[in-house]
Amino acid sequence: MGFPSRRFSIGLLFVALLSTAAFADRDLTQFGHDISVGPDEQVGEVVCFGCNVRIRGHVTSDVTIFGGRMVLEENGEIGGDVAVFGGDLRLGRGTQVGGDAAIFGGHIQRDPTAIVGGDVANFAGTYWLFLIFVLPLIVFGAVVALVIWLIRRLLRGPALPATA
């Protein structure tokens, strides 16, 4: 009697795994190709490097953009946060962002009817990009140069006296 119940349990587990995969939202990640979410589409997380994002449907999670702009069109929804680095954000009429909206090195254009559930932070100007990306790279390069200099100095050994 134990054998059929084990087979039933395995089958039930298999069906449960398939059903969760079928209803899971797909995530979108692009490098250099624009992303568009249609009015009848629902996706999970959206990540874009060097491209633009246009949302007319529903994003259940976060939207992150590096080097591009984002347009949330009429009645579009984002369930999580929006972060735009080096680009602009436009929130159209009747749009909703469930979390925070942060723009670094760009501007925000927001319709009065657009709803943002969390905080809105706009760090306009290119100096923010310098502080966020370039300055840490300079500090990292200086630390690496210091470590290399110290290793070379320790490996050189003591200086020998000059003989005449």
On the 0 to 100 scale, the average pLDDT is: 84
Largest sheet: 6 strands, parallel
Low-confidence stretches: 17-23
Please count the helical segments: 2
What would you call the structural class? alpha/beta
Tell me how many strands there are: 16
Q: What is the succession of H and E elements? A: HEEEEEEEEEEEEEEEEH
Percentage of β-strand residues: 25-35%
Q: Mind telling me the C-alpha Rg?
A: 26 Å
Broad shape: elongated
Helix content: 25-40%
Terminal Cα separation, in Å?
98 Å
Strand order of the largest sheet: 1-4-7-10-13-16
How would you describe this protein?
This protein has 164 residues and is α/β, with parallel strands linked by helices. The protein has a domain at 23-125. It contains 2 helices and 16 strands. The strands form 3 sheets. The protein has a 6-stranded parallel beta sheet, with no helix packed on it. A 5-stranded parallel beta sheet has the order 2-5-8-11-14, with no helix packed on it. The chain is elongated, with a radius of gyration of 26 Å. The protein starts with a helix and ends in an 8-residue tail after the last helix.
Set out the fold topology.
Layout lengths: L1 H22 L4 E4 L3 E3 L4 E2 L2 E4 L3 E3 L2 E2 L3 E4 L3 E3 L4 E2 L3 E4 L3 E3 L4 E2 L3 E4 L3 E3 L4 E2 L3 E4 L3 H30 L8
Parallel strand pairs: 1-4, 2-5, 3-6, 4-7, 5-8, 6-9, 7-10, 8-11, 9-12, 10-13, 11-14, 12-15, 13-16
